[in-house]
Automatic annotation (TrEMBL):
The chain crosses the membrane at residues 12-37, 57-79, 86-104, 110-129. The gene is psiE. The keyword Transmembrane helix applies. This is Protein PsiE. Belongs to the PsiE family.
Length: 149
C-alpha cells in the first residue's frame, strides 16, 4: 500500500465506523421502541383485567417505561446534536434506574441507603454540569496548534 492509498484508507475508516455506529443505534432504537410498545400493552392488560394489586410492580413497570423512553430520546438527541450524547441524559437514566431499584429492591435497608446515596451523587453531578459553562474556554497560546517552537 502506498502513501496516497494509506491516507485515503485513514480518511475512510472513521466514516465507516460512524456509519456502523449509526446503523447499530438505529437498530437499537427500533428494539427499544418495540419494548416500549410491549410495556404499553402490559399497562393496558393490567388496567383492563385489574388482576394486579401489587403497586410496586406497577410502579416498576412505569419506571421501566421511562427508561425505554429516555434511551430512545437520547438516541434521537444523538442524531440531532451531530453525533453527540449529552451527559445529562446519562444522569437522567441513572437516576431513574436507581429509583426503580429502590422501588423493586427495598427489602434491605443498607442497599436502599446506598441507592439513595448514588442518586444524591448523580444529582450533585447534574448540578455541577448545570453551573459549568457550555462552551470550553479558549486554548492558550501554549497549547495552540499554530504555536511555533
Amino acid at each position: 500500500m502506498n502513501k496516497a492509498q494509506w491516507k485515503i484508507a485513514i480518511k475512510f475508516f472513521p466514516t465507516a465506523l460512524q456509519w456502523f455506529l449509526n446503523s447499530c443505534l438505529i437498530m437499537l432504537a427500533f428494539i427499544l421502541s418495540f419494548l416500549l410498545l410491549k410495556e404499553i400493552l402490559e399497562f393496558f392488560k393490567i388496567l383492563l383485567t385489574g388482576s394486579s394489586n401489587d403497586y410496586t410492580l406497577i410502579l416498576a413497570n412505569i419506571l421501566l417505561f421511562f427508561l425505554y423512553f429516555e434511551f430512545i430520546t437520547m438516541i434521537v438527541k444523538y442524531f440531532k446534536d451531530d453525533y453527540h450524547f449529552p451527559l445529562r441524559y446519562f444522569l437522567y437514566i441513572g437516576i431513574t434506574a436507581m429509583v426503580r431499584l429502590i422501588i423493586v429492591e427495598h427489602e434491605h435497608p443498607l442497599d436502599t441507603l446506598i441507592f439513595t446515596l448514588v442518586i444524591l451523587i448523580l444529582i450533585i453531578c447534574y448540578f455541577i454540569i448545570n453551573i459549568t459553562p457550555l462552551e470550553r474556554p479558549k486554548r492558550s497560546q501554549l497549547f495552540s496548534k499554530n504555536h511555533e517552537n
